[in-house]
Design a protein that fits this description.
2 domains; globular; transmembrane helix; DedA-like; VTT_dom; cell membrane
């Protein structure tokens, strides 16, 4: 089945772009985005972009359209059904997160809408909460447009990098470049995540708080960031990086 889907997308540009739009739509749709493994799906589609089987900018446009439609459907649902939604038992599971989202929208609506687009748990809740609060369209629209414009390429980026790495000629890799690149990517991601938790320490609690209390993050966060920067700089000196950068340049600018 997976091979058939892969074949369908590689043989039909229209189906591939429809898949990008559908995934970004569902990831943005109220509550559905909390259940959908959208990151995995978009990484797979991003790999097709990185390998040149889908153009970046058509995929970007499809992702922008899916994101925008999903957000505005969620906003409309929140506005139209705010009363029943507040009483809906299923939504009570996310009451704490929804309350925090509503509070943030009250305090800093534009910042919350823009930044929340890039935070997984709040992405499908913010448009819904904005509608439930009857946030004026003039306040919702500008950050929503900016967020939907910037989010798709970032969402596709891990897959793009993987697709470009696959295209590096086997004979030129020396047998270890892909693994070094993967290790560097994981280290950079982990360092960024630790740095983000360090910045957010004391502001919220979740599953990782017991393992990463603020006093531990005070040294682990900066250390993670330093190691991430070192890994990012270090991989640039690998002999295969010029080939990788050239292929990546082609994805974005050719």
């Amino acid at each position: 089945m997976e091979a058939w889907v892969q074949h369908l997308f590689t043989q039909s540009l229209e189906w591939a772009l429809f898949a990008v739009a559908l995934v970004t739509f569902l990831e943005s749709l109220a509550l559905v985005g909390l259940l959908l493994p959208g990151t995995v799906l978009m990484a797979s589609l991003g790999a097709l972009v990185g390998s040149g089987q889908i153009g970046l900018y058509p995929a970007w446009a499809a992702g922008f359209a899916g994101c925008l439609i999903g957000d505005w459907v969620s906003y409309g649902i929140g506005w139209k059904f705010q009363g029943p939604l507040h009483r809906w038992k299923y939504l009570q599971k996310y009451k704490g997160l929804l309350d925090k989202t509503e509070h943030a929208l009250h305090q800093h609506s534009m910042f919350t809408i823009l930044v929340g687009r890039f935070v997984g748990p709040t992405r499908p809740l913010i448009p819904l909460a904005a509608g439930m609060l009857e946030l004026p369209v003039r306040k919702f629209l500008p950050p929503n447009l900016i967020g939907c414009l910037l989010w798709p390429p970032l969402y596709l980026l891990p897959g793009i990098l993987a697709g470009v790495a696959v295209d590096v000629p086997e004979a030129a890799q020396g047998g270890n470049f892909k693994w070094l690149l993967l290790t560097a990517a994981i280290v950079v991601w982990l360092g960024g995540w630790l740095g983000w938790r360090w910045w957010r320490s004391g502001k919220s609690q979740d599953w990782a708080t017991a393992w990463l209390p603020p006093e531990r993050l005070r040294w682990l966060g900066p250390l993670g960031l330093v190691i991430a920067i070192a890994a990012l700089v270090g991989i640039q000196f690998h002999p295969m990086m010029p080939i990788f950068r050239h292929l990546l340049w082609q994805v974005f600018f050719e």
